Structure formats: C-alpha cells, structure tokens
Amino acid sequence: MRIEPADDAMFGERAAWRYDPPYDFYDDDGLPVKNPELFFAVRDDDGALMGFYFFELHGDALFYGFGLRPDLTGRGLGEQFVLAGLEFARPFYGQRRVVLYVAAFNERAIRLYQRLGFTETGRHAETFDGYGAVEFVDMEKPG
C-alpha cells in the first residue's frame, strides 16, 4: 500500500465510485472538492486506487476523513485501512487527538471506530440535497 498526495486522476476515479444503499450516501455529489491539498490517494502495489485519506487540523485536534473503494468495503479491511492512515499522519501532525464524523446509520463503521479506541463525543445533523437532514456521530480518539 502506498499513500501519495491526491491528484486530478484520483478525484476522477473517486467520482465514479458507487456504493450500495444505504451507503450510497457516500457517493460523489459531483461538486468540486474543497481543499484538494488535504487529500491523499491510497494505492495498492499495482497502482490501483484503494481509497483516500483526508486530514485537517481543527485547533488542537486532527480531523480525519477517509473512504475505501466500494468493492473493498465489508471485507474486513477497514481496521487496517483506518490504522494505516493514522500512522501515515503521525509524522506530519504529531501525536494529537483525532476526531471524525460518521453517519449515524453507518453502524458497522461506528463499531469499527469503537474497537479502535474512538468514543462518541456528540451528535450533529447536516442537510444534503437528496437526503435531507442526516445525523452524524462525532467521535474522537486521544492522541
């Protein structure tokens, strides 16, 4: 697995991903990516895109976002993928509190994050075209 700065090719490939319902909520919305410099492509040894990471400093915390290619989800790869992103970020951002938001319906992801030491710190809702208000679980892991 190699991690490299995202480029236009990665965003183009990512835009074509389609998840099965209810995870289709995570499909690309067709809008330009904000802050593309905060994204990293994750490729396998053959150069195929496996997923992406997103890192952004929020005060004393690191906001962590990521996505795994649809055909790789539900196959037990999530733990390794999430941990690899955290390891990759450490030299750049140091040992700090990590926060993430996950759609409340995504119970399999919430269970994974809990196993990895993330705890729920709150909930909030965001409104999306085509989905209306979606509840998110705010989670964090100590640094």
Short description:
Helices cover 23% and strands 38% of the residues. The protein has helices at 8-15, 78-93, 107-115, and strands spanning 2-5, 39-43, 49-58, 61-68, 97-103, 119-128, 132-141.
The span between the termini is 24 Å
Overall shape: globular
Largest sheet: 7 strands, mixed
Quote the average pLDDT.
95
The structure class reads alpha+beta
| Total E-strand runs | 7
Please, what is the oligomeric state? Answer: single chain
Measured on Cα atoms, how large is the radius of gyration? 15 Å
Count of helix runs: 3
Report strand order across the widest sheet.
1-2-3-4-5-7-6
Percent range for helical residues?
A: 10-25%
Kindly estimate the percentage of residues that lie in beta strands according to DSSP. Answer: 35-45%
Order of helices and strands: EHEEEHEHEE
Low-confidence stretches: none
Key phrases:
globular, seven-stranded mixed beta sheet, 3 helices, 7 strands, alpha+beta, 143 residues
Ordered list of secondary-structure elements with their pairings:
Blueprint: E1 2-5, H1 8-15, E2 39-43, E3 49-58, E4 61-68, H2 78-93, E5 97-103, H3 107-115, E6 119-128, E7 132-141
Parallel strand pairs: 4-5
Antiparallel strand pairs: 1-2, 2-3, 3-4, 5-7, 6-7
